[in-house]
Design brief:
The structure is a single chain. The protein is of the alpha/beta class. It has two domains: 181 residues, Rossmann fold (3-Layer(aba) Sandwich), CATH 3.40.50.1000; 78 residues, Hypothetical Protein Ta0175, Chain: A, domain 2. It contains seven helices and 13 strands. The protein has a six-stranded parallel beta sheet. Helix 1 runs parallel beside helix 7. Magnesium ion binds next to loops.
Length: 266
């Protein structure tokens, strides 16, 4: 990993958009500070495509796609992307309604097993608004769980044949062949007309935790905000750059550099 202070303006030459995780990347200790939300607006107004990529629920993403200055939002770790075209909301799911209902039934059994085997975890308060995944809370509305218990939750998902990822607050588990990266690439190609397989430097990515690893692995311009440090031993493919500040302030550091490079280029 390099410090963001070593990032050269030239490296941002071909960048047209930014994917960003939300929790503890755009938000700071659970709140979006004005500077971070303003940074989204600054990108938007400068014509940089902005797409949050999150493990958060479909219900949240409906709101984000409608109300935030973004081009789209990838949610539930890649189960869909939503966007608003100025008139109406569009919801692009990777699996049909029937398939999603089947996934949720199977996750109901996993949920019972986790509840009986891991003491002290909870179910995320936004579970009702999810289309695909089961979000097990280990840090948001419950007392923080020890690391080995968090990893036990991951193991239970895997034993049940589900995928699982650890964010800063939840373990998300799901059925279906997708992750944050696969759906971000799909969104860029289908909606934004950018083939990132051909041109991975067209977008940057900013994140903070192990569920962002597929994104860190793919994007040459990947940024970890400074609070990623305690999770680094859980991440094999680390971000290319790390910011000097944590959470939303780190996100603003990334945005500032993108916009300075863009202003000097134009
Ligand atoms: Mg996060």
């Amino acid at each position: 990993m390099r410090s963001i202070l070593d990032l050269q303006r030239d490296e941002l030459r071909g960048l047209v958009g930014l994917f960003a995780d939300i929790d503890e990347t755009i938000s700071t200790r659970g709140k979006i500070q004005p500077e971070a939300f303003e940074a989204l607006w600054r990108l938007h107004r400068a014509g940089v495509k902005v797409v949050p990529v999150t493990g958060r629920a479909a219900g949240w993403c409906d709101h984000i796609a409608r109300f935030w200055p973004v081009d789209a939002v990838v949610g539930e770790n890649g189960g869909f992307y939503f966007f608003h075209d100025g008139k109406k909301l569009h919801r692009r799911f990777l699996y049909s309604e029937e398939e999603r209902a089947g996934f949720r039934r199977r996750l109901g059994q996993v949920r019972e097993r986790i509840a009986s085997e891991v003491r002290g975890c909870g179910i995320a308060s936004d579970q009702l608004y999810r289309e695909y995944d089961l979000a097990v809370d280990f840090c948001e509305d419950v007392a923080p769980l020890p690391r080995d218990q968090v990893l036990r939750i991951v193991d239970i998902f895997h034993e049940a044949g589900a995928r699982a990822r650890v964010s800063s607050i939840h373990v998300n588990g799901w059925y279906g062949d997708f992750d944050k990266l696969s759906s971000s690439l799909l969104c860029a190609r289908e909606l934004l007309g950018v083939d990132l397989e051909q041109n991975p430097r067209a977008f940057g990515f900013c994140g903070d935790s192990p569920n962002d690893e597929p994104m860190f692995a793919f994007f040459p311009l990947s940024f970890g905000v400074a609070n990623i440090t305690p999770f680094l031993d859980l991440i094999e493919r680390k971000p290319a750059f790390v910011t000097t500040k944590e959470s939303g302030e780190g996100f603003v550091e990334v945005v500032d550099r993108i916009l300075v490079a863009r202003a000097l280029r134009d």
